[in-house]
Write a structure and sequence with these properties.
Layout: H1 4-21, E1 40-46, E2 59-65, H2 69-80, E3 86-93, H3 100-110, E4 118-122, H4 126-130, H5 148-154, H6 158-163, E5 165-166, E6 169-170, E7 173-174, E8 181-185, H7 186-193, H8 198-205, H9 209-221, H10 231-238, E9 246-247, E10 250-251, H11 255-269, H12 281-288, E11 297-300, H13 302-312, E12 320-323, E13 334-338, H14 346-360, H15 368-373, H16 389-393, H17 408-414, H18 427-442, H19 448-463
Parallel strand pairs: 2-3, 2-4
Antiparallel strand pairs: 1-3, 4-13, 5-6, 7-13, 8-11, 8-12, 9-10
Helix pairs in contact: 10-11, 11-18, 18-19
């Protein structure tokens, strides 16, 4: 994609896709992986001409994803299974501007040989595909031979199971665990608090938002911002709320989510942040320390370190650490689904089933989750927290990027705060609307009451969901 020709090709492909399926809106690419731009790419990874199909004909598996993360997994899978006569045809469409879901929906509905055989969904919209409007397209894992015993023996995080289950039938699992932490700069911690010890810093910034804002004032006195923008605290608030946006079919504003409007105003009025929006160049600049004020930290799971801070601020390696956040939360994650149409083709079904099993419940040293947790999937040695507690128990989370800290000491306990009970299939759209109205209020363009009223009206007008 870095070469001009490839970029032109991707743009043309995206233009044709969007012309066919329509566009939309998206707050961010709040998952993991590296394909954060508004692009569509199609790639192939193929095995040898060995003997997967009895006729010797190569089996093609269509994979759809919103980052290059799972497509890269197929390369490793084929490397580990060189005799498979299989190729993965990967279509990658970013979630930016809501491009992915309409294209995926149309491809699933259209069916045929070009339909997705395997597809990915992230936390912001996964319920649509596991429990909601598009859930009937997904095959049950049991029909793929992935049993309850396999899931139990792997010690898969319960929330990933809950999110992937409809009426007792498991349709998707995630391979990550996405409990969140506060990720901070050691050098700033030393300057302001006299220590960069995570056990000390967690008591400076929390527990609770009062302690967090006390720390923000201390940082301000030394010329620092505690976070880059209000989005940095939003994800910790959104995913620690007791209830989701929809309760009994009506729009519901959880008190914790409503508090965000006041916390956001407090950040802005007191100059505690640089007023950036996440997933923008200004946000990335703050990771590098190039913003108006040096930024102390960011809220996020392990993937935020690996795929965002690490990629956008590589020169800061070693100057970061992680500690418990003021409130426990989780953010993101990717679930893997199979099109139920693959059940009609035994050869294709076997490949799809084995790949998904390898990604989600294989706890061996050659399973995706072990390779992922221990930085063995790529030359960069990127490590991540994964869904299997069995794998996490035998993995090492020490990172040079964190000054040698074992991040699993913080992120594994953080997974207790992960829950699927406050998610809805409309989260992506409603979050967009809510955060835009909050910014209108904090910018002084409307009153608090008007922002909330406009939020409710916009949800009703755009999504057809009335307030309680």
């Amino acid at each position: 994609m870095k070469r001009t020709l490839a970029l032109i090709t991707a743009i043309i492909m995206l233009a044709s896709l969007l012309a066919a399926c329509g566009g939309g809106k998206k707050e961010n690419n709040a998952g993991s992986g590296s394909n954060g731009g508004n692009t569509s790419t199609t790639t192939n990874s193929g095995g040898s001409s060995g003997g997967s199909g009895g006729s010797g004909e190569k089996i093609t598996i269509n994979l759809w994803s919103f980052t290059d993360e799972i497509p890269k997994m197929t390369e490793k899978y084929l490397e580990l299974n060189p005799d498979l006569n299989v190729e993965f045809n990967s279509t990658i469409i970013s979630t930016t501007d809501n491009a992915y879901q309409p294209a995926l929906d149309q491809a699933l509905a259209a069916g045929g040989k070009d339909a997705p055989d395997i597809y990915a969904a992230e936390a912001a919209f996964v319920l649509k595909y596991t429990q909601g409007d598009m859930s009937d397209f997904a095959a049950g894992y049991a029909d793929l031979g992935i049993t309850e015993d396999m899931v139990k023996e792997a010690g898969i995080a319960e929330y990933t199971i809950d999110i992937g289950t409809k009426d007792g039938e498991l349709k998707a699992l995630g391979y990550q665990a996405t409990g969140g932490a506060f990720i901070y700069r050691r050098s700033i911690a030393q300057d302001v608090f006299g220590t960069d010890d995570p056990n000390a810093i967690k008591n400076e910034i929390g527990p609770g938002w009062d302690k967090f804002f006390e720390a923000a004032e201390k940082l301000k006195q030394k010329g620092y911002a505690i976070v880059s923008g209000d989005g940095d605290i939003w994800h910790s608030i959104e995913n620690s709320s007791d209830k989701g946006w929809i309760v009994d079919g009506k729009l519901y504003i959880d008190p914790k989510r409503e508090e965000f409007i006041d916390l956001s105003k407090r950040l802005k009025d007191n100059g505690y942040h640089n007023d950036t929006q996440d997933w923008t160049e200004a946000w990335y600049a703050d990771m590098r320390g190039e913003g108006p004020k040096p930024v102390f930290g960011f809220f996020g799971p392990a993937w935020l370190i690996n795929y965002v801070i690490g990629q956008h601020a590589p020169d800061t390696a070693g100057d970061w650490a992680v500690t418990e956040p003021p409130v426990g939360f989780f953010w993101g994650g990717t679930w893997v689904l199979a099109n139920k149409e693959v059940l009609k083709d035994e050869a294709k079904k076997q490949v799809v089933a084995d790949f998904i099993r390898w990604v989600t419940v294989d706890t061996s040293d050659n399973g995706l989750q072990y390779l992922w947790a221990n930085g063995l999937m790529n030359e960069n040695g990127t490590k991540d927290t994964v869904a299997s507690s069995v794998v996490m128990a035998k993995s090492n989370g020490e990172l040079d990027f964190l000054g040698g800290q074992n991040m699993f000491d913080v992120f594994v306990p953080a997974n207790q705060f992960a829950s699927g009970k406050n998610l809805t299939q409309y989260d992506q759209s409603i979050n967009d609307i809510w955060r835009a109205q909050v910014r209108e209020y904090t910018a002084g363009n409307k009153s608090r009451d008007q922002a909330i009223a406009d939020f409710k009206n916009q949800v009703r007008d755009e999504l057809g969901i009335d307030s309680e």
